[in-house]
Amino acid sequence: MILVTGGAGFIGANFVADWLANHAEGIVNLDKLTYAGNLENLATLFDDPRHVFVRGDIGDRPLVDRLLDEHRPRAIVHFAAESHVDRSIHGPAEFIQTNIVGTFHLLEAARGFYERQAATAQRAFRFLHVSTDEVYGSLADDEAAFNEISPYRPNSPYAASKAASDHLVRAYFHTYGLPVLTTHCSNNHGPYQFPEKLIPLLIVNALAGKSLPIYGDGLQIRDWLYVGDHCRGLRRVLAAGRPGETYHIGGGNQRSNLEVVHTVCALLDELHPRPDGRSYAKQIVHVADRPGHDRRYAVDAGKIADELAWRPTENFASGLRKTVCWYLDHRQWLAGAQSGDYRQWLDINYRQRQP
Q1: Is the full-model pTM beyond 0.90?
Q2: Going by C-beta distance under 8 Å and a sequence separation of 6 or more, which residues neighbour residue 90?
């Protein structure tokens, strides 16, 4: 049994499904079900006895202690986090509470549980902390990709809160001997991503005939990773990663936001043409940039390739096609994800960014 936090969110839900498809070992899935946590992401697992879902907060120490003592997991995989930069700009307090304070409480619970175990169980135990490339800040166009010893230079409240959680995880290894692993991933795309993020937002707006907003000049560059490849990488790190080490999981697909938008439009033109025959690219508009917008992210995934023999199987074209096809085939999920909170958020974020 393993314990997964945040397993009803985008990456967490994909990881839970991927894990159960590849392991007989069960999962206790702890998720608070905030706006981005969606039980529909787990609908295919409702009847799987290996999947135990618990609604709760990682900061609820009595609950976490009870789950650890009852299920005695051999690992904790920690996804639970507030993760959207724009939301962190408008309301940073929740990011501090969940990403820093929540991670601290989870680490304390894990430490107590670990120290109560016999030596054989301690040797097998792992705490896998899933982080982001955004903790490193922004790269210049001619700079090499971030590696595992790059300095931290977070530029948003979200990135700063994740950086702080990374430091806590590292400290619990060096101070208390908790066998931790940390991963930093590049931008993910794939099924079940909440439609505030770029790719699902583009699809939602395109199908609704709305504008496709691009911040600033759209030349910000990101490395794109298909979420299924990310899940495989996490399983590999959990299985063979060295305690105390950090591993980068990247797709090797650096693209500008403008290129991503045009590629999504081309796929929609092919797979779901507009009734008037025009390209969805006609709906693209440039809006005011967000504050502190990092220009470029890219991670060097050489360490995980060399040490753990992991490499992505999807390239940008194949992964993005799978992503777009999934959203076109799951319109009901998209409609359900677009709650009143989602619409209110879009109004707050974009009303002052008109072209």
Answers
A1: yes
A2: 348, 349
